[in-house]
Specification:
By secondary structure, the chain is an alpha+beta fold. The chain has two domains: 113 residues, Beta-grasp domain (Ubiquitin-like (UB roll)), CATH 3.10.20.30; 123 residues, Alpha-helical ferredoxin (Fumarate Reductase Iron-sulfur Protein, Chain B, domain 2). 41% of the residues lie in helices and 12% in strands. The strands form two sheets. It has a five-stranded mixed β-sheet with strand order 2-1-5-3-4. The chain has a two-stranded antiparallel sheet with strand order 6-7. A hairpin with a 2-residue loop joins strand 3 and strand 4. Helix 7 packs antiparallel against helix 8, helix 7 crosses helix 10 and helix 8 crosses helix 10. The structure holds FE2/S2 (inorganic) cluster. The site of FE2/S2 (inorganic) cluster has 12 residues, from loops.
Length: 288
């Protein structure tokens, strides 16, 4: 009995000697060791693994200001997207790995990245469709904030410049009355309404690269979406055409089709830009 009491006293003494910070540190080390063990087991159990070469850059942390690539090996499973692999890498290897994502179903447009040399949505890109190892970089032609996150402000400013909101001539009489559109007109603007503001098109465009004020394919497509909407009326359409009929508007497009090729929503962007060029010419014709 006395030995038991002595042992208890000893343990209590030891606990009292250890500070709360040390206890937390020890617990963290144990958790980390367990995590590493789990990871080894997972990788051993996986039938196939794939390596991601991920661009890293953090201007605010000493020693990480130099851009570099980090390799992360992840277990592959059928149906896995690049976004799944990024999330796995962040949760398993390095919680500081930074990238944007939200809906995971090609709707929010926040995870457009440069994957294996092409602009794509990470959540829509199946790993099986790519060559391995997979190289993941931030969108080109944009300033990198950290790792895979780019500064989208310029893109948003260009979108804002075309007044991207519905602005009808007449409002319906009743408060709850619908603003009706003919099926034919709806069909005409249908594809242009699919834009999710991901910025892939702007990033792929050579003309929009660098420091210039070209409105870019996404903003021009947005202008198309409203200029072609019959409910806005002819006066508003003329105003909209004036916005895109300027030095940094539709005339900068050299029909390279790169925007159309990378658009994850299959919007015929180049076609819309060409149609607006024709509309702008018609808008300037004078008949005496
Ligand atoms: Fe929303 Fe990919 S996470 S588009």
């Amino acid at each position: 009995m006395s030995t038991q009491l002595e042992q208890q006293d000893e343990t209590e003494e030891q606990t009292a000697e250890t500070s709360p910070q040390e206890r937390r540190r020890e617990a963290k080390q144990i958790r980390e060791a367990e995590r590493q063990e789990r990871l080894k087991e997972e990788l051993k159990a996986a039938e196939e693994t794939v390596t991601l070469k991920i661009f890293r850059y953090d201007p605010e942390v000493e020693g990480k200001e130099e851009p570099r690539f980090d390799n992360f090996t992840v277990p592959f499973h059928e149906g896995m997207t690049v976004l799944d692999a990024l999330i796995y890498s962040r949760d398993t290897y390095d919680s500081s790995l930074t990238f944007r994502h939200s809906c995971r179903q090609a709707v929010c447009g926040s995870d457009a990245l440069f994957i294996n040399g092409r602009q794509r949505l990470a959540c829509k890109t199946q790993m099986i469709d790519l060559d391995w190892p997979i190289r993941v970089e931030p969108l080109p032609h944009q300033d990198v904030v950290k790792d895979l996150v780019v500064d989208m402000q310029h893109f948003y400013d260009q979108m804002d410049a075309v007044e991207p909101y519905f602005d009808p001539d007449d409002l319906p009489d009743g408060e709850l009355e619908e603003q009706r559109q003919t099926p034919g007109n709806r069909e005409k603007v249908k594809l242009s309404t699919r834009c999710i503001w991901c910025g892939a098109c702007m990033s792929s465009c050579n003309i929009a690269a660098g420091q210039n004020e070209y409105l870019g394919p996404a903003a021009i497509n947005k202008a198309y979406r409203f200029a072609m909407d019959e409910r806005e009326g002819t006066d508003r359409k003329k105003e909209r055409l004036r916005i895109i009929d300027q030095e940094n508007g539709v005339w900068r497009c050299q029909t390279q089709f790169s925007c159309t090729e990378v658009c994850p929503k299959d919007i015929p962007l180049t076609e819309h830009i060409q149609e607006l060029k024709r509309e702008a010419v018609k808008n300037n014709l004078k008949f005496w």
